[in-house]
Write a structure and sequence with these properties.
This protein is α/β, with parallel strands linked by helices. It has 13 helices and eleven strands. It has helices at 4-14, 21-36, 40-45, 53-67, 72-76, 97-112, 129-137, 150-162, 198-203, 206-209, 214-217, 226-238, 254-263; strands at 2-3, 50-51, 78-81, 84-87, 119-123, 142-147, 167-171, 186-191, 239-248, 270-273, 279-283. The protein binds glutamine (GLN). Glutamine (GLN) is lined by residues 96, 192-196, 208, 217. This is Release factor glutamine methyltransferase.
Length: 284
């Protein structure tokens, strides 16, 4: 019978062309802990643990899928974000740790705020990870999420339900926002819009560019900040007078994003780095 240790060997060899050894190890741990319903620490502590036949067979088919470059989160069908479990499919961007940092910043800000924060809107919500984790941690808010994609919103709604978070989802294109959708004034508008340029694309891992939704990632070459401009303009009518905007940004466009916010009369603009030290988030 195969052991945990054998699977590590099998996967490390099998994935050598797709991932570096550290990435492979993280992926194997994720898969084994999910499949065997055990902790990563236990897997490491007991490498001689035996793996039954159906699971061993499943692991072989997972390995074949991983070799194509398909992200492990899509193979497992779920991922963790801000301590919650989220269903993911190729219809939604896989939630990233940088976005957890953005959520953390919003939660801190709301908890410290002197005026009440009630209505929060996330634009381009995808899996719904932002409004759902905010609602989970800030019970008094009304959370809203907009997305252009019907398929993404279907996943977002399932995630809201499984995480027992009440979120209002609206299907709309922010670049052509319909005038007849009634919205409250928002105290916070947040967005992690598409921000990857063609130049960045060429440097990215193909397991992102070949598998994740392009509408969630890529921006037009001639106007890479289009979403930021449109959202800042949208905020002029839809954000309350002391409201806040939070953005996740492309690390190369910090200065330009600050500038476009300034031009639109935003004040108290703050830029923050992510855990890798890259300019990644703005609050204004
Ligand atoms: N951070 C994502 C990536 O680099 C991009 C997310 C986005 O475009 N909003 O894969």
């Amino acid at each position: 019978m195969k052991t945990v240790k054998d699977v590590f060997e099998q996967f490390k060899i099998g994935l050598a062309d797709v991932y570096d050894p550290q990435e492979s190890e993280a992926i194997i741990l994720l898969i084994l802990s999910d499949l065997l319903n055990t902790s990563k620490a236990k897997l490491k502590a007991f490498p001689e643990t035996e793996i039954g036949f159906p699971q061993a067979e499943k692991l072989t088919s997972i390995l074949q899928e991983l070799k194509t470059g398909k992200p492990v989160q899509y193979i497992l069908g779920h991922t963790e974000f801000y301590g919650l479990n989220f269903k993911v499919s190729p219809a939604v961007l896989i939630p990233r740790p940088e976005t957890e940092e953005l959520v953390q910043w919003i939660i801190e800000t709301v908890k410290q705020s002197e005026s009440p924060v009630i209505n929060i809107l996330d634009i381009g919500t995808g899996s719904g990870c932002i409004p759902i984790s905010l609602k989970h941690n800030l019970l008094n808010i009304n959370a809203f999420g907009i997305d252009i994609s019907t398929d993404a919103l279907e996943i977002a709604k399932q995630n809201a339900e499984s995480n027992k978070a009440n979120v209002n989802f609206i299907e709309a294109d922010i670049l052509n926002f319909p005038g007849d959708i009634a919205l409250p004034k928002f105290d916070i508008i947040v967005s992690n819009p598409p921000y990857v340029t063609l130049e960045d694309k060429n440097k990215m891992h193909t397991n992102v560019t070949d598998f994740e939704p392009h509408t969630a990632l890529f921006v037009p070459e001639d106007d890479p900040l289009i979403f930021y401009k449109v959202i800042a303009d949208f905020a002029k009518t839809n954000l309350s007078s002391n409201g806040l905007i939070f953005f996740e940004i492309n690390e190369s466009f910090g200065t330009e994003t600050i500038e476009l916010l300034r031009e639109r009369s935003f004040r108290n603009i703050e830029l923050r780095q992510d855990m890798s030290g890259r300019d990644r988030m703005i609050k204004a």
